[in-house]
Write a structure and sequence with these properties.
Blueprint lengths: L15 H4 L2 H7 L5 E3 L1 E2 L2 E2 L9 E3 L9 E7 L2 E6 L13 H9 L2 H18 L11 E4 L4 E4 L5 E2 L4 E10 L2 E6 L11 E4 L6 H13 L3 E12 L4 E10 L13 E6 H10 L15 H11 L1
Parallel strand pairs: 1-6, 10-14
Antiparallel strand pairs: 1-4, 2-3, 5-6, 7-8, 8-9, 10-11, 10-12, 11-15, 13-14
Pfam family, one: NUDIX
GO biological process, one term: NADP+ catabolic process
Protein name: NAD(+) diphosphatase
């Protein structure tokens, strides 16, 4: 896949060997360490539009700190906010601004940090016994002092798939989408499923199509709150649709010519379709399909 995938390619060395060594981690928690500045979960920018960094002296003394890793020989940290995400990411204008403004490496760095501190903010208590949990392994684990349970940052797998029939692609739109924006069908992988089974189930549940020959294309970290988008491609032999209107407002087939025209039209799109934005893996999947 030629185009860069948004939120991938972080310049941070995650330095797992340091996470597991409390003495080595403590030695890096000094005046040379860097603190990624956040406003809650939103990024803070320099005058030049880059991520703003400070020192550990800038952190609230009562805040929990998580170790992001090493960059340019310095330890990098972020502070856990008082609250985790309280609403959908698409309702927060600062999120869209970050995805449009940051360069790929900084966007990936921010995305990883956001996912991690958001998880901590929402997991201060043990899911097993309800007791308070404490940061461990530099922020890549939380431990419960009461029942000794260990908790780890989670990533939820989501399949997102291009479904093809005789040179057409199936795309859908949710009611919250702006006009003329369609995307690939998507859904969470459920317990006990393979990726292929999730693609088949979601395709049938959302649009009533039976698919075959599921193949993997690419993946994308999506930090809202913390998902792994697993991009796939599949074929169907029957284009008849039975749309689940509790999930989708509409689903329809697009020709290669319609998709090419929307891509060429840029951000304003055509009268019928706006091509998915570059920060969404649906964009990368469509580019892959059109260019192969």
């Amino acid at each position: 896949m030629k185009a860069p995938i948004a939120f991938a390619g972080s310049p941070i060395d995650r330095a797992d060997h340091i996470r597991a060594n409390p003495e080595e981690l403590a030695a890096l928690t000094n005046w040379r360490a860097r603190l990624l500045k956040l406003d809650g979960l939103a990024p803070v920018y320099t005058d030049e539009g880059a991520l703003e960094w400070g020192t550990l002296a800038d952190a609230d003394p009562d805040a929990e700190l998580v170790f992001l890793g090493l960059m340019d020989g310095k330890a990098c940290f972020a502070a856990v906010p008082d609250e985790g995400a309280t609403g959908p990411a698409y309702a927060n204008p600062s999120i869209w601004a970050a995805m449009s403004a940051l360069d790929p490496g900084e966007l990936a760095l921010y995305g990883g940090a956001r996912s991690l501190v958001d998880w901590h903010a929402r997991h201060r208590f043990c899911a097993r016994c309800g007791g308070a949990t404490q940061v461990s392994k530099g922020g890549w684990q939380r431990n419960c002092d009461s029942c000794k349970a260990q908790h780890f940052p989670r990533t939820d797998p989501v399949t997102i798939m291009l479904i093809e029939h005789k040179g057409h692609l199936l795309m859908g739109r949710q009611p919250r989408f702006p006009a003329r924006i369609y995307s690939a069908l998507a859904g969470f992988v459920e317990p006990g499923e393979t990726i292929e089974e999730a693609v088949a189930r979601e395709s049938f549940e959302e649009a009533g199509v039976r698919v075959r020959d599921v193949s993997y294309v690419a993946s994308q970290p999506w930090p809202f709150p913390s998902q792994l988008m697993i991009g796939c491609h599949a074929f169907t032999d029957d284009p008849e649709l039975a749309v689940d209107f509790t999930e989708l407002e509409e689903a329809r087939w697009f020709t290669r010519e319609e998709l090419e025209a929307a891509r060429a039209a840029g951000p304003d799109g055509t009268d019928t379709l706006i091509f998915p934005r570059p920060f969404a893996i649906a964009h990368n999947l469509l580019v892959w399909w059109l260019d192969k």
